[in-house]
Structures are given as structure tokens and as C-alpha cells.
Amino acid sequence: MEVEEEVKRIVEQVKELHDSSTSFVSSSSDEELSLRKRASVVDSSIRRLHSTLASDKHLDPKLFEKLEEDLQRARCMLADGDTSSFLPSKPQGRFVRMFLGPVNVRASRKDIQLKVKEEYNSYRDRTALLFLVFPAILLTLRSYVWDGCLPAFPVQLYEAWLLFLYAGLVMRENILRANGSDIRSWWLYHHYFAMAMALVSLTWEIKGQPNCVQKQKGVRLFLQWAMMQGIAMLLQNRYQRQRLYTRIALGKAKRMDVVWGETAGVDGQLLLLFPILFTLQGFEAYVGLQLLRTVLMGVVAEWQVLVCGILLVVMAVGNFINTVETLMVKSRFKAKMKRSKSRAELD
């Protein structure tokens, strides 16, 4: 009898708990809907005011800059706090839907979103180091162990790792964009192209003797470019992390942003970083053209070499345009800062 009474009591408690939970979910859903509407209205108002300021040619320049800065800070405050989870979410990329289906990957809490971004940064740091070490080991073994001729399996293992690397990057970047990050569309397309190149190169037959040096010239150049890419990635990661903290402190960036644009300093790092980037892009285009040349001259006849050459040239040109755009944004920002400083001194 005691057990029967206890079972009945537990059943009643579960019913009461279920009713309370249903009532709470219903009330919280109504409140969430209200917050979403308010957040959407405020976000639309900020966008409208931005457009109004941009189209008003008669506004005093000093007042324009002040109002623009205030709006930017308001937008960062809106998008960088807990309110961000109530803002309209960006559509998820096809890549995410293809692998995960119609799953909502937007985190409801800011701390979870920041953990996603920290994991992305950690992944980039790890892969940048491997990007440098993996091809360096292959080229060293080629010179001192394999008599100047790369075996097919280690190269294909590296290409499989590249496919895994870029797939992981694209997945993380699509999820970051869905959670409010400002990653440029070009970097997603760049990684799609790189994935396609890695997939195609996996079917590329790595030929050996005779005339191994000539047949593997494209592979050797690609590994040398990959080492340079690893160095550039390490420098970019360090530079971007430092600039991100500064921009957040100034209220000019959200915590979910990935830094690519304006800067107010660190000229020593810029003097080192941008020449390396332009050299890397030039060498990437050179490797692509060399692959195309080997096909046109009849040294190799595989279609994979032709496709990889075209993709490398496309990525090099896209990276160059993106870097030039970034430099132009930096130049405009510095000019704007100088104008503001001059006005302040005159006042």
C-alpha cells in the first residue's frame, strides 16, 4: 500500500511539473516573440538612420561623424549582447544544410556563440602550424630519403588532410556567419575552391621515374607554396587577434567579428604582413600558371593538373583583390582619423 501511494504521489507531481513547464514555455514564448519584434524594429531603425545619414549631403561633417559613431556603437551594443539572439538570423549556407539538414545552428546565448568563435580561432591556429610543418616534412624527406622523388601515398595523405581542413573551416565559418560574424563572402568561396582543388588532386596520379623531377615539379611548387601559406596564416592569426581586442574596446566591432578591415596602428606588423601576403599570392598564381604550362607543353596530360592550375590562379586573383580592398579601407580610415584629429586641434 505504501508503494502504491508513493507511485500515485509521484504521478501527480509529474503532472503538476508538466503543467507548470507548459505554462512557463508558453509565457516565455510570448515574451520571446515580443522581444524579437522589438529587436527587429530597433535594428531596422538603425539601418534606416544609417541610410538617411549617408544620403544627407547638407549635414555638418563633424556632426555626421559623431552621429555615425553613435549609431555604430548602438549597433554593436545591440548585436554584441544577449539581445543578439532575438535579432533576425542570417540564412544558413547550403554547405551546412547539405551536411546537417535543416538544423538551426544559431546559439541562443552569447557565451555559447563566443565559445564557437574561440574554437574556430583555435582550429585556425592548429591548422596553420600543420600547414607549415606537413609540407616541410615531405620536402625534407624528398631531398634526403626519397632521392628527389615523392611517393604517391604521403602526398595523397596530405591532400586528404587539406580536404578535411578546408571542409572544417567552411563548416565553422558558415556557423559563425549564422551567429552574427562578419566573415567576408570571398573567404567562404576561397575555401570552396580550395576544397574542390584538394578533392581533384586526390585523383591526380603522382608519377615517379623516369624523369621524376620534371613530372613532379607542380607538386613540389605546391608544397613550397603551402609552407609560405602556413607562415602567412600564423602571422594573420596573431595580427587579427590583437586588432579584434582593440576594435571591441573602441566599440567598433562585435565580439563575434573576425577582423579584416580598419586598423589604427600596428604598422610594424602591417609592414611585415602585407608584403608576405602579396608574395604568397604572386607565388600561388605562379604555381597555377606552371601547372597550366605543363599541360599545354604536353609534359603531363591529366585533366586534374589543368583544373588545379585554373583554381590556383582564380584563388590568387581573388585574394589579391580582397587584400587591396582591405588596404583601401585602412587608408580611408586613417585619413578619417587624421581629419578628426585636425578638427579637434582647430577647435
UniProtKB/TrEMBL annotation:
Record Pfam families: TMEM120A-B (PF07851)
Chief place where the protein resides: membrane
One GO cellular component term noted in the UniProt record for this chain: membrane
Identification of the protein by name: TMPIT-like protein
Family, as annotated: Belongs to the TMEM120 family.
Coiled coil: none
Family matches, as PANTHER family: TMPIT-LIKE PROTEIN, TRANSMEMBRANE PROTEIN INDUCED BY TUMOR NECROSIS FACTOR ALPHA
Membrane spanning residue stretches: 127-145, 157-175, 187-206, 218-237, 258-283, 303-329
Locations listed in the record: Membrane
Protein topology in the membrane: Multi-pass membrane protein
Organism: Capsella rubella
Keyword Membrane (UniProt): yes
Keyword list, A-Z: Membrane, Transmembrane, Transmembrane helix
